[in-house]
Give the backbone structure.
Amino acid sequence: MAAAKIRLSPRIRLRFGARQSSAAFNSDFPFCSRPSGRPQPDTCHLQPPSINNIVIAIDGTSASGKSTNAKLVAGALDYVYVDTGAMYRTLAWHCLQKRLDVHDAKAVAAACRKWKTRLECVESGGLRAVHLLVEGYYPEREIRTAETSAAVPHVAAVPKVREWMVRRQRECTQFGNLVMEGRDIGTNVFPETDFKFYLDAQLEERSRRRAADGIQENLAARDLRDSQRAVAPLMVPLGARVINNSQMTAEQTSGLILQEVRSRLSRPAQ
Ligand code: DC
């Protein structure tokens, strides 16, 4: 398995093959144009086509603090934040818009093959983040509705969708060093990175956090679904630092991650 690769250097140097050539990027995705319509945050600058960036992978269970901590770490290091769950949610929303049956894997895969998307890096409130736009639009609020939340696990279980998402997620390195959060980043999207973290917390604590956000959710069922699906199930990536933050604040959790990343970055490359 790719996750078992030998560690060669404390600083991951990501290199890509033909799939990632700048020509393919430019023809498929005019990545950094500003969408029309309502006012948008500033777009970030693209990196040159030669990509040598660091990726910090943050995986973990639902409500384990991935988003909060990934944003804190990205902000502290001035890295670009990528919420991969939002990308799956965007496809779920798109399928609902098209009145597709999200249980129909073939229809979902076909929609994913055909939709017109573009990655964009925006800066807002001091944080740079990647958004997946559909026909120039980022459905920021729509992807958080109960309807989209109910649809997204079905969409995320479709193998062709996951292949598509992994390609887009790897393309995010064009925007710079990344902090990417999800369920399969250290196992599947960037198995070669040396910076892997897996967050977890006790079920009661995670349920309490969800309830504090006004969301009632059966997290035990969600954990089971995420960890038992056939494709890219949630698991601890090989070499990941596992942080159980049941008794920790977000500042303490992100502090641990930052401490480890900085300590590795300060070690001379071997
Ligand atoms: O983190 P979230 O709740 O926004 O994730 C939405 C859905 O996408 C959830 O069902 C888990 C799934 N997901 C995934 O399968 N792989 C990822 N890398 C990120 C999210």
User: Anything to note?
Assistant: Residues 1-39 have pLDDT under 50 and may be disordered. DSSP finds ten helices and eight strands in the chain. Residues 29-59+66-197 form a domain with the Rossmann fold fold (CATH 3.40.50.300). Residues 250-266 form the longest helix (17 residues).
